[in-house]
Design goal:
single chain, 626 residues, mainly alpha, two-stranded antiparallel sheet, 29 helices, binds zinc ion
Length: 626
């Protein structure tokens, strides 16, 4: 069942795969372009118009002929910071993907400098340190590849989406297996009681066949696995004890939590990276990896007054060195949102770079008065104050900038250039919310639900929830209304008040009662033989029980009459299995996470396995104590 549903899930992801590959292909193309100086025509001089043949000034610096890797890298980083391009994933990926040589470590250090939020870059740097034997630095980089995941949009979406889908799979499969196992435990007694409804003389195999036919009804009606689970849920509720019923209700609730909020949210997140083509194009352009198609899409949307498109195209103009076009677009943004600190800071920088320092200060101050200060805005303001000899104001602004983000300001100050100003980085949060808003997790829920329940129950999550709730209510309703058949704990014989006339207890048959509690009424020799047979049966059952407790998750808990431990063991076992199965993520890594993601999921698999062994051990101990 797990395989079938995961196959279906994989089919549902096929579309995502294709889109992902297109996206990766695009990123790869961008990378090649940045990596291959051969694509530059010989006549282009780097000093000429920045847009001649290049996608941005950054590309021009990167492809500068004759310069060393380090020169190009430092020049690129400096210009990137000035343009607010604090993460250039595309050149970073190109540096990582290059053929290994003696420059490998330098290249990977540069990749981290160009894209400090890209987990893949930290992983690659860690691997380079590792191969040189610098284990401390390697571990530091591997740690950073993990801690940078929340800062990177695609990486965080991929990891959280994968974790939610794994959680959903665990809750759905663990709960279903528990319901089936609990129903199976009551199946023999239920078969006997169902047979009594027809005839007391019905042989045991006919009773089993009768109940099996009832269980098969949902299959005939096309309700699939979930329909059968409902019948097992009724049996489990009727024949369970109070604790069993409480845990069954918990399992049903967690099944629904897995199906609805969890699966739905995970699907929504993983779909979101490609859900809004304009947002994806904007993100690619900001990262320096847009495809010609993405650029065309953005230019086409220029007329629609989309604020994200307007900002993105302003940034593109700025990166191409077309400051007049950029200023025009930014002024349009400021007309709509007069306090926009992002637009005001860049407008200020354009004025500052053109030598109009007083005008720049007006823009900066408007930005500070507006929606707040950023490290870049306060740094730029400080530089402008210094230019007009307002030293005290300058120092105050610099102190604010350092208080907001000391590391960034230290990098700016390192250039030691009184003409350096930095554009603020493009705000990623609006892109993320647009992507998530455009995506839907419903196709995922529908695909899984249709696999589990191809009939009416699977049409809507609330139908499935209603059917499961009805099954529990039906079980609670009928459980106290008739005398349940039992089974002898000593010999396994069926015990039934209707068929046997008088009974001693639901757990001990008449023969065993006499054998163990009234020994004076039985023949001593026969008694010894009988007890020996029963002892052999007990030994055999114990062996089978211990082996199956260790091999089959949940059996130990059920055997110890601890359904809570059984359910926990099923969830933990499923979690360990799915973490291993999906150790590379439920969908391919969007070329952002690298080995760091597999490491996270591998650690999760290990921790979950340890807890599983703990629960198994507790179950075995609990059985021993009984
Ligand atoms: Zn017995
Ligand atoms: Zn009976």
């Amino acid at each position: 069942m797990r395989e079938a549903s995961s196959r279906r899930v994989r089919i549902a992801w096929a579309g995502f795969w294709v889109l992902g590959l297109i996206l990766l292909g695009g990123a790869g193309m961008g990378a090649e372009r940045l990596a291959a100086p051969a694509s530059v025509s010989a006549g282009d001089s780097p000093a000429e118009g920045p847009s001649a043949g290049y996608r941005s000034q950054l590309e021009r610096i990167w492809l500068a002929p004759g310069a060393s890797l380090e020169e190009r890298g430092l020049g690129l980083r400096r210009r990137a910071l000035a343009l607010g391009a604090d993460n250039l994933d595309s050149p970073a990926r190109a540096l990582i993907a290059a053929e290994p040589d003696d420059q490998e470590l330098v290249r990977r250090q540069l990749a981290v400098a160009l894209a400090p939020d890209l987990p893949l870059a930290h992983t690659a740097l860690g691997a380079a340190y590792w191969s040189r034997g610098e284990l401390g630095r390697a571990l530091g980089s591997f740690g950073e590849s993990f801690f940078s995941i929340p800062r990177h949009l695609e990486a965080s979406v991929w990891l959280v989406g994968s974790l939610l889908l794994i959680l959903a799979s665990v809750l759905v499969t663990g709960s279903l297996v528990f319901i089936f196992a609990s129903g199976f435990l009551g199946f023999g007694r239920a078969a006997h009681d169902a047979g009594d409804l027809v005839s007391r003389r019905m042989p045991a195999f006919a009773r089993t066949a009768l109940l099996s036919a009832v269980v098969g009804v949902p299959l005939v009606l096309g309700e699939g696995l979930l329909g059968v689970a409902c019948v097992f849920l009724v049996i489990a509720t009727v024949y369970g004890r109070a604790l069993d019923r409480a845990v069954l209700i918990g399992a049903v609730a967690l099944f629904l939590v897995g199906l609805y909020p969890s699966l739905q949210a995970g699907g929504k997140l993983l779909m979101s990276l490609n859900a809004d083509p304009l947002a994806s194009a904007a993100l690619a352009l900001i990262r320096g990896s847009e495809t010609p198609q993405q650029l065309a899409l953005l230019l086409e949307a220029d007329r629609t007054n989309d604020p994200l498109v307007a900002r993105t195209l302003a940034i593109r103009a700025r990166r191409l060195g077309r400051n007049e076009e950029a200023a025009g677009r930014l002024q349009q943004i400021v007309r709509d949102a007069p306090a926009d600190p992002f637009a005001l800071a860049i407008l200020g920088n354009i004025s500052f770079e053109a030598g109009r320092t007083r005008e720049a200060i007006e823009f900066y101050e408007a930005g500070v008065r507006g929606e707040g200060e950023s490290a870049e805005l306060m740094f730029d303001l400080s530089q402008a104050y210094a230019k007009v000899f307002r030293m005290e104001d300058g120092e105050f602004a610099m102190a604010r900038a350092q208080a907001i983000n000391g590391a960034t300001v230290a990098e700016f100050l390192h250039f030691g250039d009184s003409n350096f100003v930095a554009d603020p980085p493009f705000p990623i949060a609006p892109i993320r919310s647009r992507m998530v808003a455009a995506a839907s997790g419903q196709p995922m829920v529908t695909a899984v639900l249709r696999t589990l329940a191809p009939g009416r129950l699977g049409e809507q999550p609330r139908y499935a929830a209603g059917a499961l709730a009805l099954a529990v209510l039906l079980g609670l309703f009928i459980q106290g209304r008739f005398q349940h058949a039992g089974g002898c704990v000593r010999c396994g014989r069926r015990i039934c008040a209707r068929c046997d006339g008088e009974i001693w207890s639901t757990e001990l048959c008449g023969a065993c009662h006499h054998l163990f509690h009234k020994p004076q009424e039985t023949d001593a020799a026969l008694r010894e033989v009988r007890i020996e047979v029963l002892q052999a049966r007990e030994d055999r059952l114990e062996k089978v029980g211990v082996i199956s407790s260790i091999l089959l998750p949940g059996v130990a808990g059920l055997r110890a009459k601890r359904p809570d431990l059984a359910l926990a063991a099923l969830y933990l076992f499923a979690a360990a299995g799915f973490f291993v199965l999906w150790r590379d993520g439920v969908v391919p890594d969007p070329l952002a996470v690298g080995a760091g993601g597999s490491f996270v999921l591998g650690v999760a698999a290990f921790l979950v396995s340890v807890v599983y062994l703990g629960v198994l051990f507790a179950s075995l101990i609990s059985w021993r104590r009984d």
